[in-house]
């Protein structure tokens, strides 16, 4: 399991390095920063997934807010 996580993170780093280099060659620094940030989040979430750690859903707060509205509409 640890080897899988290491291979995954190294792959993400290599892919990010290549893509960021291309962004910077085209003078797209904002896009490069956004890409690196998103890939960092993906690396963390993917590593947690590979480790078997449950990640709470981000949908629950939206359900709490919008479920009563949906029920009122359906009545």
Summary keywords:
flat, mainly alpha, 3 helices, 0% strand, 75 residues
Helix content: over 70%
Distance between the ends: 50 Å
Strand content range: under 5%
Number of helices: 3
Radius of gyration: 19 Å
Characterize the biggest β-sheet.
none
Report mean pLDDT, rounded to a whole number. 92
Instruction: Tell me the number of strands.
Output: 0
What characteristic shape results from the CA principal axes? flat
Number of individual domains:
1
Overall description:
81% of the residues lie in helices and 0% in strands. By secondary structure, the chain is mainly α. The protein has one domain. Helix 1 (2-25) runs antiparallel to helix 2. It is flat, with a radius of gyration of 19 Å. The N and C termini lie far apart (50 Å). The relative contact order is 0.11.
How is this fold's topology laid out?
Blueprint: H1 2-25, H2 29-50, H3 60-74
Helix pairs in contact: 1-2
Brief rundown of the structure:
81% of the residues lie in helices and 0% in strands. The chain has 75 residues and is mostly helical. The protein has one domain (2-74).
């Amino acid at each position: 399991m640890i080897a899988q996580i290491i291979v995954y993170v190294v792959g993400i780093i290599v892919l990010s390095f290549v893509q960021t280099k291309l962004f910077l060659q085209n003078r797209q620094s904002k896009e490069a920063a956004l890409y690196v940030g998103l890939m960092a989040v993906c690396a963390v979430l993917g590593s947690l997934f590979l480790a078997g750690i449950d990640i709470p859903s981000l949908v629950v707060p939206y359900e709490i807010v919008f479920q009563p509205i949906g029920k009122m509409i359906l009545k």
